[in-house]
């Protein structure tokens, strides 16, 4: 028997649970589940037929290949197209992956890894080429260390101002003709500490910036040596004649520029210093000059990424020395001026000490005879 019903005037849908059907109304959408109810509903109305059993009752049908699939699933061709769409979406999401999933994802948090993360962050944030990102990262690190440099220069000028007082103290102990015993050394150290305290000077402040900057410079050097292995596109990240940052400069122009910039920075710093140079200091300056002359040979074995950093930091040092030598800048930064007469007095007193201290045993007072 077939029961015909008029088409409902309201929106309706159908759902199948086991072998039964239900009809419900909805105001939002019209939903007809033809795959699951095609055997229960006819276009003209509601028909009662023999209920399906087994897999057919659950909505499974046989495909062209003979395999059973759910009737609501797409066909084999539609499934292939859907798989291709998913693959394309995955490729597009990988191409627009966040920075943390890039080459720096496998890096740790060692100082060298932090340097590579810094350069990569500059590269991603600014869109600059790799060579420009190295330069900008170098400038950023040097600006962070600039307060330490200013403090060291200020402390060095204080030491230059109290040099005459320190040399006079040494001459006074030398004139006493005393041997350098533990008591004499302790007395000399106490008076020297009084001189430091009156002038607001501490010897550690002069070398502390050097100890703090050395790990940073070494980390930059070690990180940029393996720059090409971390960032494969560094082979085209250079400019001008050094396009490949992972290779050495075959023209030797960049190594020569490295040595020249280093020598210029060192020489300018020597000529603008405000303190009288001691013999030991003069010897150290000559050693540094010799190292700068041999620098092109060392730099010829380094990749261009390291040389870009060296040229950048040497140029920054040169400009930094030039700016800190301006009287107006020194006044703003509270760097004391060392008058010329102080330097002349320092040179005179140092010349008097050239004979050495402590004096020899011949000039020392005779020892007391042993008591009987």
UniProtKB/TrEMBL annotation:
Location(s), subcellular: Membrane
Ranges of residues in domain Membrane insertase YidC/Oxa/ALB C-terminal: 130-323
Keyword Translocase part of the UniProt annotation: no
Key words, A-Z: Membrane, Transmembrane, Transmembrane helix
Family matches, as InterPro entries: YidC/ALB3/OXA1/COX18 (IPR001708), YidC/Oxa/ALB_C (IPR028055)
Transmembrane annotation, as ranges: 130-153, 207-228, 240-266, 287-311
Membrane topology: Multi-pass membrane protein
Biological process according to GO: protein insertion into mitochondrial inner membrane from matrix
Molecular function (Gene Ontology), one example: membrane insertase activity
Primary subcellular site in the record, as a coarse category: membrane
Gene Ontology annotations for the cellular component aspect, listed alphabetically: mitochondrial inner membrane
Pfam families tied to this protein: 60KD_IMP
Family: Belongs to the OXA1/ALB3/YidC family.
NCBIfam families noted in UniProt: yidC_oxa1_cterm (TIGR03592)
Record's protein name: Membrane insertase YidC/Oxa/ALB C-terminal domain-containing protein
């Amino acid at each position: 028997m077939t029961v015909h019903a008029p088409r409902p005037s309201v929106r309706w849908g159908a759902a199948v649970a086991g072998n039964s059907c239900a009809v419900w109304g909805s105001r939002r959408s019209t939903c007809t589940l033809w795959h699951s109810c095609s055997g229960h509903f006819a276009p003209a109305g509601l028909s009662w037929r023999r209920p399906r059993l087994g897999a057919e009752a659950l909505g499974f049908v046989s495909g062209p290949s003979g395999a059973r699939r759910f009737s609501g699933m797409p066909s084999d061709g539609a499934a292939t197209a859907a798989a291709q769409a998913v693959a394309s979406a995955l490729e597009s999401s990988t191409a627009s992956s966040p920075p943390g999933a890039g080459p720096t994802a496998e890096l740790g948090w060692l100082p060298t890894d932090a340097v590579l993360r810094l350069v990569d962050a500059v590269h991603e944030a600014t869109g600059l080429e790799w060579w420009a990102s190295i330069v900008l990262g170098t400038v950023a690190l040097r600006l962070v260390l600039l307060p330490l440099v200013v403090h060291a220069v200020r402390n060095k000028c204080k030491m230059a101002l109290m040099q005459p007082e320190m040399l006079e103290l040494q001459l006074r102990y030398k004139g006493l003709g005393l041997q350098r015993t533990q008591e004499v050394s302790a007395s000399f150290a106490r008076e020297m500490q009084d001189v430091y305290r009156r002038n607001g000077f501490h010897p550690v402040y002069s070398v502390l910036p050097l100890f703090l900057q050395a790990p940073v410079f070494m980390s930059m050097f070690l990180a940029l040596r393996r720059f090409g292995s971390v960032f494969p596109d560094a082979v085209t990240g250079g400019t001008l004649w050094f396009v490949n940052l992972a290779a050495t400069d075959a023209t030797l122009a960049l190594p020569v520029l490295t040595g020249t910039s280093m020598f210029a920075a060192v020489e300018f710093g020597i000529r603008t210093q405000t303190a009288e140079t001691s013999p030991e200091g003069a010897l150290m300056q000559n050693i540094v000059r010799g190292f700068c002359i041999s620098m092109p040979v060392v730099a010829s074995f380094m990749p261009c990424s390291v040389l870009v950093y060296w040229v950048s930091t040497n140029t920054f040092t040169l400009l930094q020395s030039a700016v800190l030598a301006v009287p107006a800048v020194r006044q703003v930064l509270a760097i004391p001026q060392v008058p010329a007469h102080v330097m002349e007095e320092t040179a005179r007193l140092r010349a008097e000490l050239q004979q050495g201290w402590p004096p020899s045993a011949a000039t020392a007072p005779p020892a007391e005879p042993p008591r009987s």
